Amino acid sequence: MMIDERAFPVEASPRRIEPILHASGDARALRNALGRFATGVTVVTTIGDDGVACGVTASSFNSVSLDPPMVLWSQSNSAPSNRVFQRAAFYCVNVLGAHQRDLSDRFARPAANKFEGVDYALSEENLPMIGGAIARFICRNDYKCYGGDHTIFVGTVVRFGHLPDSEPLIFFGGRYRG
Questions:
Q1: Which of 84, 97, 151, 178 is the most exposed place for a label (fewest CB within 10 A)?
Q2: Domain assignment present for 83
Q3: Quick check: is 34 in a domain?
Q4: Count H helices, E strands: the chain?
Q5: What is the percentage of the chain residues whose pLDDT exceeds 90?
């Protein structure tokens, strides 16, 4: 449905609002402002060239397109696993449920074996699929775009699934919710 923007004319004398704008160079203020946007929490997984499972917590997941089905997520260029994800042909986005905060914390930090003791199964592409995830998306790693200090990964969804009536893990204002 298209909305005719002319149906919402700009007021001749707009109401005054409290300005809360900061200069773009104020990193702390920018981080605080970005934290006002609630996000779901995911663990993105793949297998490296060496056959070792790799996973990272990402709240930057978003849909891009339904036709073709595409999603995106981003990762810091300085992350130790960035090179692994750059080279991977596929990855799995595991959307965490409210009961999986411990997994978010585990995959957000460097560790020798993040998968030790974690319930997971392997997909047809040999990708770790986290047990209890409320949704998962197997993606072909089609596009990589460099945006400042991050790499934006855009993948085509080749398979997906979800658990109905499940509560998501939410991150808002620097804290978990849900």
A1: 178
A2: yes
A3: no
A4: 3, 12
A5: 74
